[in-house]
Design a protein that fits this description.
The complex is a heterodimer of chains A (337) and B (294). Chain A is mostly helical and 337 residues long. Chain A is built from 16 helices and two strands. Chain A has a domain of 228 residues. In chain A, helix 3 packs across helix 12, helix 7 packs across helix 8 and helix 13 packs across helix 15. Classes of the chains: A mainly alpha (337), B mainly alpha (294).
Chain lengths: 337, 294
C-alpha cells in the first residue's frame, strides 16, 4: 500500500519503451527482453505462492502450452503470429481452469507435488507425441527483428504488472487472496468462496505465462520439451521470487533482474566454469532462505519502516496480544494500591 | 507370457532398491515435515563415495556400506540445525522455506558433483555382480542376479531395523511422539533438537547407502540424482506421506509397474504413466493408497 514506491515505475517504463529507439545493440536488447520475460515469470509465480500461499511447482507447463500452441499453429496450420499469441494465453488459462478445480483442493506439500507431477507428465507427453516433434523440438520460421519481440514482451509483462497491481494492491481481490493464505477457514467465515478465488488466482497467474511462452517460441524460433517445459523454468522463477521477496510485486521483479544479470554475466565471462554457476546459485538460495527469509526487497522495506518509525518517535505496530489496559497501567506499581 | 514370471521377479528386485530410496525420506517427512528435494543428490554423493572408496581400498561395496552410512550420518547430523532454523515457525510459510532451502542444497550438491566427478557414468564392481542363480524347468525359467537379491535383502534389513528402532526402543518412542505432537513430546522429556538431528542423519545415511547399492546394481552419473528424487516422491505419496509401513508396498508396486511397462509397452511411456498415476493418486486419495498419510 505504498503508491510512492510504485510511482517510480512509470519513468522506468518510459525508459524501457524508449530503449530500442536510442540503443541499437541486438545483443543487449535480447538480454533485456529475456530479463523482462523472467520478471513476468517471477511475478506470476508469486501471485500464487506469495499472495495466495500455494506453491505451484509446475509453472513451466503454462509456458510450454503457450510455446507449443504458437509453434504448432504457425508451422502446421500456417497461422499468423498475432493470432496465435492470444490463443496461447487462452489455452494456458483454460488448462489452469481445468486442472485448478481439482488440484487446488490439495494443500501445502500435496499441491506442490501434484503440480510438479503434472508438469512432468506434460513434458513427457511432449517428448512422446509426434505433433510436438518429440525430443527434437520444433523449429519456427525465423523473424529477425529484436525490437518487435522486445515490445511484445514488454507489453505483456508491463500489462500483467499493472493488472496485478490493481488487483492485488488496490482491489478487494488482493485482500481475499491474502485472507486465504493466512487462514482458509477464517476466510470462509467472512464469506469468501476460497475455491473460486483460488481458481481465479491460478488462471490469472497462468494466462500471462502462456502469452510469454507464445512470444518466446517465435522469438527464439526453436523450442523443445526441455527448454519450454523443463522444470528449470519453474525453478528459476521460484529462486527469483524467493531472493527478491515473496508476497510483493516489486520483490520478485528485483530478484529476477539480479539473478538473471548474475547468470548472464557468469555465462558470458566464466563459461568454462558453468557448473560453478549451479554451486553459487544453490548457495545463494540457501543463504537467502536462512538469513533473509523475507527476501531482499522485504528486508529493505522492513528496515525502511523501522527507521521511519524510529525517526517519528512512534512505537512499532501495536501487537495483537497487547490490550489497551496494559499501556495505560503505570508500570512498576502493583494494581491494588 | 513365458516372460511374465521373470518380469514380476525383476519388478520385485528393483522394488527392493526403491524401498531404501524412499524409507528415510518418509521418516524425515513424518517427523519434521520436510520435503527434501536433495534426496537424489544424497544418493548420488553416496554412490560416488562408494566408488572412490572401492577404488582406493578395494573392499567389496557391500562391506563399505557401514562406513558410508557413518560419514553421511555425520553430514546429516550437522546439517539439520540449519534446516530446523529455516523451518522454525517464526518466519512465514515454513513449508516453502524448507522446500526452497533443500532445493538450494540440491543445486549445490549437483554442481559440486559435476565439478568433482565429471559427467561420466560410473559403476562399482562387486564380487556378487558376475554370479546369478538360474532356475529352469522346461519352458519356465527364472534368473536371479545375486546383486539384486542382495539389494532386496539389504532393503528388508533396513526396514526391519527401522521398525524395530521405532517400536521397541525408547529413542523410537520419542521419535513417534515427536511426529505426533512436538510440544507434548517436549514436555515429556524428548529432546527434539537432538532427535531431529539423529533422524535427519539416519535419513542421509540410508540414502547414501542406497546410492552405493544403485551404483553397484546399475550405474550412476552426477546428473542422475533428480531421477531418484522423482521416484522417492512417487513412492512416498503412494504410501501416504510419513506413513512408513506403506513404503515397502508402494516401492514394490512401482518396481512391478516399471518392469511391466518396460517389457510390454515402451520405456518412454513409463515416466508418463508414473507422473499421471502420481497426479491421480494425489487427487483421489492425497493420503496415499492406505489412507494413513499425514
Amino acid at each position: 500500500m505504498r503508491p510512492n514506491v510504485y510511482l517510480w515505475l512509470i519513468p522506468l517504463l518510459l525508459i524501457l519503451v524508449a530503449l530500442p529507439l536510442v540503443f541499437d545493440s541486438p545483443f543487449m536488447l535480447r538480454i533485456v527482453t529475456e530479463t523482462i520475460m523472467w520478471i513476468g515469470l517471477a511475478i506470476t509465480w508469486d501471485l500464487l505462492a506469495g499472495y495466495t500461499g500455494y506453491l505451484n511447482f509446475g509453472h513451466a507447463m503454462f509456458f510450454g502450452v503457450g510455446a507449443y500452441t504458437t509453434a504448432i499453429l504457425m508451422k502446421h496450420a500456417g497461422w499468423a503470429f498475432i493470432l496465435t499469441v492470444p490463443l496461447g494465453g487462452l489455452l494456458a488459462g483454460l488448462l489452469a481452469l481445468v486442472i485448478g478445480v481439482p488440484t487446488l483442493r490439495l494443500k501445502g506439500a500435496y499441491f506442490a507435488i501434484g503440480t510438479w507431477a503434472l508438469a512432468l507428465a506434460i513434458q513427457q507427453l511432449a517428448l512422446i507425441l509426434d505433433i510436438t516433434g518429440g525430443p527434437d523440438g520444433m523449429r519456427l520460421p525465423p523473424f529477425l527483428n529484436p525490437a518487435y519481440f522486445y515490445f511484445w514482451m514488454l507489453g505483456v509483462v508491463a500489462g500483467t504488472f499493472a493488472l496485478y497491481w490493481v488487483l492485488l494492491e488496490r482491489a478487494p481481490f488482493g485482500l481475499k487472496v491474502r485472507a486465504i493464505r493466512e487462514d482458509q477457514e477464517g476466510a470462509m467465515a467472512l464469506g469468501i468462496n476460497p475455491t473460486t478465488v483460488k481458481v481465479q488466482a491460478f488462471v490469472l497467474s497462468a494466462i500471462p505465462v502462456g502469452l510469454m511462452g507464445s512470444i518466446y517460441a517465435y522469438w527464439i524460433t526453436f523450442i523443445d520439451p526441455l527448454s519450454a517445459l523443463g522444470d528449470i523454468l519453474t525453478d528459476q522463477a521460484v529462486v527469483m521470487a524467493v531472493v527478491g521477496g515473496l508476497g510483493t510485486l516489486i520483490g520478485p521483479a528485483i530478484g529476477a533482474v539480479i539473478v538473471f544479470a548474475f547468470k548472464t554475466m557468469f555465462w558470458a565471462y566464466l563459461s568454462d566454469y558453468q557448473v560453478l554457476y549451479l554451486i553459487i546459485l544453490g548457495a545463494a538460495i540457501a543463504l537467502t532462505v536462512v538469513f533473509l527469509p523475507n527476501g531482499l526487497w522485504g528486508t529493505f522495506m522492513g528496515y525502511r519502516e523501522a527507521s521511519r518509525t524510529f525517526k517519528n518517535g512512534l512505537s512499532i505496530r501495536p501487537r495483537i496480544d497487547e490490550t489497551a489496559d496494559t499501556e495505560k497501567a503505570p508500570k512498576g506499581e502493583p494494581d491494588h494500591v | 507370457m513365458q516372460l511374465l514370471p521373470q518380469v514380476i521377479l525383476d519388478g520385485i528386485l528393483i522394488g527392493g532398491v526403491y524401498i531404501t530410496i524412499a524409507i528415510g525420506f518418509s521418516l524425515v517427512f513424518g517427523v519434521m515435515h520436510i520435503i527434501d528435494f536433495a534426496v537424489g543428490e544424497w544418493i548420488m554423493l553416496g554412490a560416488f563415495m562408494g566408488y572412490y572408496l572401492n577404488r582406493w581400498i578395494g573392499l567389496d561395496p557391500f562391506l563399505l556400506l557401514p562406513f558410508v552410512f557413518f560419514v553421511f550420518f555425520a553430514i546429516g547430523y550437522g546439517l539439520q540445525p540449519v534446516i530446523g532454523r529455516v523451518l522454525s515457525g517464526k518466519r512465514g510459510n515454513p513449508l516453502l522455506m524448507g522446500l526452497v532451502f533443500t532445493f538450494g542444497i540440491m543445486l549445490m550438491i549437483r554442481g559440486l558433483g559435476l565439478t568433482i566427478f565429471g559427467f561420466y557414468s560410473r559403476s562399482i564392481p562387486s564380487a556378487l555382480a558376475s554370479s546369478s542363480w538360474l532356475y529352469e524347468k522346461g519352458d519356465f525359467f527364472l534368473t536371479v542376479p545375486f546383486v539384486r537379491l542382495a539389494g532386496l535383502m539389504f532393503a528388508a534389513a533396513i526396514t526391519l531395523t527401522l521398525s524395530f528402532m521405532l517400536k521397541k526402543t525408547d529413542f523410537g518412542t520419542g521419535v513417534r511422539a515427536l511426529a505426533q505432537h512436538p510440544e507434548s513430546a517436549g514436555l515429556m522429556g524428548v529432546n527434539s533438537r537432538k532427535t531431529n538431528c539423529v533422524i535427519y542423519g539416519i535419513y542421509v545415511g540410508i540414502s547414501a547407502m542406497t546410492g552405493v547399492l544403485i551404483a553397484t546394481i546399475f550405474s550412476i552419473t552426477p546428473m542422475e540424482g533428480g531421477r531418484y528424487t522423482v521416484l522417492a516422491f512417487f513412492i512416498v505419496v503412494l504410501a501416504g506421506m510419513g506413513y512408513l509401513p506403506g513404503v515397502p508396498w508402494a516401492a514394490l508396486l512401482l518396481g512391478l509397474l516399471q518392469s511391466i511397462f518396460i517389457v510390454y509397452l515402451s520405456a518412454s511411456y513409463t515416466l508418463l504413466a508414473v507422473f499421471v498415476f502420481l497426479y491421480i493418486i494425489l487427487l483421489i486419495s492425497p493420503k496415499g493408497l492406505f489412507g494413513k498419510g499425514w
